[in-house]
């Protein structure tokens, strides 16, 4: 049998890890917002600039992940289990990778007119990353468990919506798009965006796992 | 070095978690059986009804997962590590998601004549979910370790077969299907079915991990 | 709060697990080398022979994984946490699966002329598996933490390169390949190769997680 570890919840005064996780969360919101700007323009020159901006933000995210690793190497005491800090950092990094991937594909595949479904998914990504950032922000105080759980529920609900929009959009491509190559191209871009919300759900899973472990 | 934890195996009298895991297992078998019915009819009206039934079962699965989370919140003592209960519940939920996804795609993409490979994969999914349900059922008694391991081996073997059928079916699509859009459509549906068996293998991995941790 | 476990690092004299992990690492390098040979020939008969060789090596990998599981069943004392040994073995197995998948698809889809991108990805896979093997080899001595971390950084950098080559190759397919079916076929093969490097990154994540847990 296993006992819940009552001594094991968050060091309230941690000044190393929580600020870094907060930065990672804000960075994701910013990436999602730039992606949203990008799917709402038909100016391909502007879209190139925005793609560059997302790439820079992705590198900033990599730096934050790297700093979390460095802190893990330097600190003997951590606010929760070391391997969970590592998992949380990796899962936040994955979200950044897929937002970057979606933006990169739009650029590389020379998409001129982002579709309605791309716009809807980009908006959902803002929502999802906002809940992710909020959950991660609340992680520093045990009294916020309810709030974190609420954010996780919301992330999962956004992911469900994104999945629905993705599947419907692909079905419409099959019904109306006669050019197979354009069909695949659009499907791939929609897929990176949908996977980015999946990765937000993975963050939510890591958070839930941290909560149940320390409940 | 790490010592295997001899004190840490299953509370035999747990009345909270095991019944819920058993329900989740049975629910998966039922989903796979309805999917199998669906690929074996050419009546598209019936297929719509069956898709609705699978959706309802998926919601029932979500409820079970939710109850497991509620029990984790209420119970200080758990039959095995809290985070492993969470992982097991999530992995069972993933299987349901992909069975639902396959059924949903068949409906959305208006597949009229499920192919031989779809029928074979649906049958393998029944087999895989039956082994999953069996393994989860046996989890409540330490004396069943051998049986659980056996089920895991069988799940992996079913997954190998499913992978082989999937790859062969896709190769045949490349060889004989001249309409690229139909090709992609079929490939996507086959892919959700094959991924559903992958997710059964993930359940098997979680179970093996629980076993080695508590061996 | 959680304390890093100073007592918990590697049993230096383990004679069971480390030799098996080393074999798994070497096996991956060999698989990557045969795949590289395969993308560099236009002799389809030779490619069939090499595909068979990769399949045999994949079975050898399965045997090694199986032996690691058997050792876990027999040994009460393990050089690091039992569940981490399980995760590491699984993640190495996944790399083998995707190398085998790439080779299998080239054979099944009757690719006659492997493209430049396939050749570049095959070379990166040799690099990635060499770093994986090196990291796993160094795992037996705590003094090698720096070296393991270095290898992990290199694996991640190879994965980034592979991702870049993959995305660029797919973009070029969209631009120049007018036959949608050939496009999908090539994209699928490139995708298995790129996913094999992703799986090397997963090994690196497992290794990092083991290091932070035992730091």
TrEMBL record, chains A, B, C:
It holds the Pfam family PhoU_div. InterPro entries: PhoU-like_sf (IPR038078), Put_Phosphate_transp_reg (IPR018445), UPF0111_domain (IPR052912). Belongs to the UPF0111 family. This is DUF47 domain-containing protein. It comes from Sphingobacterium corticibacter. The lineage of its organism: Bacteria, Pseudomonadati, Bacteroidota, Sphingobacteriia, Sphingobacteriales.
């Amino acid at each position: 049998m296993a006992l819940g570890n009552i001594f094991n919840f968050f060091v309230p005064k941690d000044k190393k890890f929580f600020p870094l996780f907060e930065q990672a969360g804000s960075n994701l919101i910013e990436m999602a917002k730039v992606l949203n700007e990008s799917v709402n323009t038909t100016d391909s020159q502007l879209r190139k600039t925005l793609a560059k901006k997302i790439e820079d933000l992705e590198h900033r995210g990599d730096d934050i992940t790297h700093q979390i690793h460095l802190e893990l190497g330097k600190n003997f005491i951590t606010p929760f289990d070391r391997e969970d800090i590592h998992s949380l950092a990796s899962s936040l990094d994955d979200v950044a990778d897929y937002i970057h991937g979606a933006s990169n594909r739009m650029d590389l595949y020379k998409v001129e007119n982002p579709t309605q479904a791309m716009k809807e998914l980009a908006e959902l990504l803002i929502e999802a990353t906002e809940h992710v950032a909020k959950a991660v922000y609340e992680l520093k105080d045990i009294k916020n468990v309810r709030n974190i759980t609420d954010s996780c529920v919301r992330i999962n609900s956004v992911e469900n919506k994104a999945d629905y929009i993705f599947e419907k959009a692909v079905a419409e491509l099959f019904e109306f798009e006669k050019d197979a190559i354009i069909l695949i191209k659009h499907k791939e871009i929609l897929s990176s965006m949908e996977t980015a919300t999946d990765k937000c759900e993975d963050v939510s899973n890591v958070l839930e796992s941290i909560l149940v472990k320390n409940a």
